[in-house]
Amino acid sequence: MFDTETGLPVSMSKAKNAVTWLAFVLAYIDMKWPHDAAKTRDSLTDALATVTPALVDENAPGKPDDLVLREALRQYVLPPAGRQLPRPADIAAAVTWLERHSLPVADLAKVRNVRLGLDALTLRLDGGAAAATTIARKRSVFYNVLQYAVDLEELPSNPIDKVKAWKPPKVREVVDRRVVVNPAQARELLAAVTYAGRLDRGRHLRAFFAALYFAGLRPAEALGLRMQDCHLPETGWGRLVLAKSKPQANKRWSDSGEAHDDRSLKHRAQDEGRPVPIPPELVAILREHIEEFGTHDDGRLFRTTRGGVISIGTYCEAWQKARTLALTPEQVVSPLAARPYDLRHAAVSLWLNSGVAAPEVAERAGHGVDVLLKVYAKCIDGGVEISNRKIDHALETFS
């Protein structure tokens, strides 16, 4: 829809007409919301619920409690659907206070005001220091909203670029090599999973975790895997053609009202598939899984007893039990395979260390080559010992 007076899309027209930061934020969310995934919406509102209470008149009296302001923003103001909900008295008062005292958008051109927002990102609600990854994520949202104001010519330039004395903490951008299992450890873990769940849940999850390790799938991609996506010959290598992903998010942020929405693959265009060759070991595991458990009506291999999507909590609980069964006490308290996602890290590391060309690994993993080499190029657990033996051999050869 377009504004009849300005000729601009309605969301853009709202943003240009916004006087305060709060009004501008609402227009920005209305512009982004239809196109964002549930997890992105969650992250967006989380960041803006942190920074918006800081961008107010510092001398305004009667500021509501921080927890009330956050609840007002996260539940009643920022989500479009939440704006229609009945507001308790304390929430209504907090919203009124924000509307009255939110800074004018033009005032965000001042570095000292932007610093207020940036400083808010570094603290948790209890006053403790926020994690580096959290700060980086929220700063990115804040930056993008300000850049939208620049694009609409409401600000001359992005004021965050002018803040020289504030530096975000460094975020680890590479996989911690300590989390990466070798093939023997992976197989021990997959065997242990069968004993980790209630009833037949563990056996059902074995193939799910195997897909993460042998095919390098993301958990959300494995949850979306369907029979029609699988080519599973009786002998030799097979192939998966991934088509959908089922990331989990709070029901509040999804279009369907469910915890899992169907989404296109990460870093792929809508409906663009990703072929992944799979070794005979995974082919056999998937064939056994289908023979024992069948598939859902829509072809999905992995689901709950009622046909739903398996939750993060369910498969992570089983994984932690499997770790205690398969690993030594020292390894259990270490970062080794601490999360199911670490199986994907192990897969990509194994491919790279096996000499597979980086572009091919990137294609299978669904990453760009630059990201792959920056993040995933790590040695598998035990690689140091292998390297040491090679060096020993070289030293002995030339002694």
Summarize the structure.
This is Tyrosine-type recombinase/integrase. This protein has 399 residues and is mainly alpha-helical.
Give a structural overview.
It comes from Sphaerimonospora cavernae. The protein has 399 residues and is mostly helical. It folds into 2 domains: 153 residues, no CATH class; 211 residues, Orthogonal Bundle (hpI Integrase, Chain A). A hairpin with a 6-residue loop joins strand 1 and strand 2. It is globular and about 70 Å long. The termini are far apart. The mean pLDDT is 87.
Model regions low in confidence, pLDDT < 50 over at least 5 residues = none
By CATH reckoning, the class of the largest domain would read Mainly Alpha
Q: State the helical fraction.
A: 40-55%
Please, what is the average pLDDT? 87
* H and E order: HHHHHHHHHHEEEHHHHHHH
Structural class, by secondary structure, is mainly alpha
Beta strand count: 3
Q: Under the CATH scheme, which architecture of the largest domain would be assigned? A: Orthogonal Bundle
Region (Disordered): 248-273
Biased composition (Basic and acidic residues): 252-273
Keywords: DNA recombination
InterPro entries: DNA_brk_join_enz, Integrase-like_cat_sf, Integrase_catalytic, Tyrosine_recombinase_XerCD
Question: Layout of helices and strands, plus pairs?
Answer:
Blueprint: H1 10-17, H2 21-32, H3 38-51, H4 66-77, H5 89-101, H6 111-121, H7 132-151, H8 183-193, H9 201-214, H10 219-223, E1 230-231, E2 238-242, E3 274-278, H11 280-293, H12 312-326, H13 329-332, H14 341-353, H15 358-365, H16 369-375, H17 383-397
Antiparallel strand pairs: 1-2, 2-3
Helix pairs in contact: 1-2, 3-4, 3-7, 4-5, 8-9, 8-12, 9-11, 9-14
